[in-house]
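User: My collaborator sent over this chain with a note saying "see what the structure looks like." That's all I know about it. Can you take a look?
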Amino acid sequence: MKRCLIAALAGIFLFLAGCSGSNGTADAPAVDSSMPASGMEFSPEAGSVVRDQAPQPAERKEVVTGQIYVTAADPVQAARDAVGIVETAGGRIDNRTENPETDNSPASSSLTARIPASELTGTVYRIEALGKVTSVSISRDDVTMQYQDLDARIAALQSSVDRLRALIAGATNTADLIEAESALSSRQGELDSLTSQKNYLADQVDLSTITVQFSTDDVTPSPGPDSFLDGLVAGWNSLLDALRGSVVALGRAIPWVGALVIGAGLVYGVVRIVRARTHPTSSAPARGLDEADEAGEPNEAKDAQA
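Assistant: Without extra context I'll predict from the sequence alone. Here is the result:
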């Protein structure tokens, strides 16, 4: 009897344990094998799973400017050769100056070249080969953030312009139409201005600006003074230059001042003559009265004596 009771209790215990285990597993959410694991995402095109990709860095935008000083036996011809080099590379010449040799000055020439950024290095090397390079200065200005800002503002304004045009197309009364057209005119003006700025910046990025100076002598600008003594000498020389300039200016001004004084004297003399002719002096009548008085004095004296 005891054995039967123990067996029955053991069976009940095992049954309850099995039920509690099955309930615990039923409450747990099933794992869907079709869902991607962490760090995975579905491909929007084929539905396949691909790993997360890091955002691509923005393309760097740079404005490149520079100056090159070259000495050549024939600066004018060297500049013409440089023009051909730039145009062959796909660039253009914005400014060009040629100064042939004279009795007072040697020959020289200069040009401002716009060179494609991708062809800058090779073009600069070919220009330097036209003579002896005395100085090269190239600077790069990163404008990536400015370019991205213009892109974002242009996109926002373009969306606003499109919405305003849609409102104008569906306007049902005159007041709404006038208000929408006014807002559209303002936004369109801002959009055109930003687009012009972006186009100018894109031109500066695509075409580097290089100024080339050709001369027979070394005309490289000398560096500024870097010590107290050099600064003192430079200040003294600038003072002497200023004094020389003042003396020269005074010498040029003296003939003009003399001419102005003579002219003023002539004008004054003419004015005096004209006034004398148009307004005679009143001294004559006064003199007549004085003579009459003098003539009358003896008579009065005679009357008094009588």
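A starting point for your reply to your collaborator: The beta strands are 40-42, 49-51, 62-71, 92-99, 108-116, 132-142, 207-215.
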